[in-house]
Amino acid sequence: MTIRRYLRLLPVVPSVLLLLLFLLAPVAWSFYASFTNAALSGRAARDPQWVGLENYVRMFSDDAFPLAAWLTVVFVAASAVLGQNVLGLLIALLMTRSRKAVSSWVGTAVVAAWVLPEIVAAFAAYAYFNREGTLNQMLAFFGGQGPDWLYTFPLVAIILANTWRGTAFSMLVYRAALADVPQDVSEAALMDGAQGWQRLAFITLPLIRSSIATNLMLITLQTLAVFTLIWVMTAGGPANASTTLPVLAYQEAFKFGDIGYGTAVASVLIVLGVVFGAVYVRLLREQKP
Amino acid sequence: MMSRPRLAADIALAVIGFCFVAPLLWLLLAAVDPHAGYQTAVPSAPSMDNFGAVFTPELLFQPLTNSFLLSAGTAAVNLVAAVLAAYPLSRYQSRFNKPFMYSVLFGTSLPVTAIMVPVYGLFVQLQLLDSMMATIFFMATTTLPMAIWMMKNFMDSVPLELEEAAWMDGASSMAALRTIVLPLMRQGLGVVFIFVFIQAWGNFFVPFILLLSTAKQPAAVSIFSFFGQHGAIAYGQLAAFSILYSVPVLLLYVLVSRSVGSSFALSGSVKG
Fold first, then answer.
1. The complex's ipTM?
2. In angstroms, rounded to a whole number, what is the distance separating the alpha carbons of residues A95 and B114?
3. Nearest C-alpha of chain A: how many angstroms from B61?
4. What is the pLDDT of residues B181-191, one digit of tens each?
């Protein structure tokens, strides 16, 4: 009887094997390699040596890592938590009161930036923030003179670009959440004379707080992993001014051939992902016990 | 009474919508302008020359074929593995189900870019670098947690009674899955397939790291090399190439969102 019970689970095996081989093994290997001097070529590539905590010590003595960690925090906070999240909520709120034609047109525009392949969105953003690009053309139209965004304000450019690219997700989450807020609740508040802002802060937002929490977790995880957009727009430059952790891990491993140090940076990112992932799973568990 | 706030909302939304469209205007206009630069301008002599220039086997057909093989292969592996895994999870109660589903959910939140350096190292050790097959299996694994999650939800909505009748007639559970459950969840299968296909089609970083020879690279990578080599000169061709490469996924997205609405869009939550 017990054997039959286990046999029933047999079809799960292919998935488990794939996940072990291609997801868990690289994670484990990443932690292992981060304690060695593994390299892309040369002697250390054939026979990597155990170097203990050397890579992690270097992280904090090196200028590049603390800078990249700080830039990652700013990038995630500004483009995901503030940019995508607040703009997505704002759009969803505006859509509840605007004309249907307007909201469906704007919805399509916002979703278009999100559905495009990542590399194409990155090219479009590169052209847009270029010295001669559309943004500066518009500023010139109003009599202003725009800077060379990608060189002078690379972090601002990638933050705006990632907000543009990813807001659609938050918008869709909040549209679905707001659709579940009973109409009569906010109407009752209107009768009591609740002003717009109070109604938002004390009625609407508390009602959709679980959506807000889930959304924040997911967009943080997505933004933490952004590579292509930054790589195409600035390649992390100039002089590391837009090098976030994924870009740093890539550069160390593939440009400088230092797999050991690259995997150490990657391991830090994995730990961050695990922390946010654990919080996310917990949140969902609480929602549906 | 409601007309003034409504007008204000319309105007605010239109402004936001314009900001979202602005970066895409360049793409559309430059593609039909043989003398395109980084400025957005209505072409003085619009033509299809840029499309003609990229319409060659090496520039367009080969990379798009590779993209198709990679995406279809990834989606097929996902479909098979996820259907098999979802069946016992959906049909039998077991202590193992809940921890497994939560581990799978946890897997969806692993930042894929973070594991690319170790994956490269692993592929070197196993001599899998530049292998289309291995790349397909890796890409399939990155979307597999989401695919299992979606598949189980679709399978849960197929009523158990129909299968019980088949079991009475002596059919095995795999036969019941094939002849009864799968036909009833055709739409779900299609959604998962297209969802994975879109993600794989747009994936740049994974093939960029794992596929080295030009003959195997998908359009996402070849378009990036083209940008590196000619991008500073041939803006118009870059835009035309980008549009031709994007059209298939835009069409697939429209197809799916028509049939299942925004729930699909939500399940696109975990993008690589």
1. 0.88
2. 36
3. 18
4. 888 888 889 88
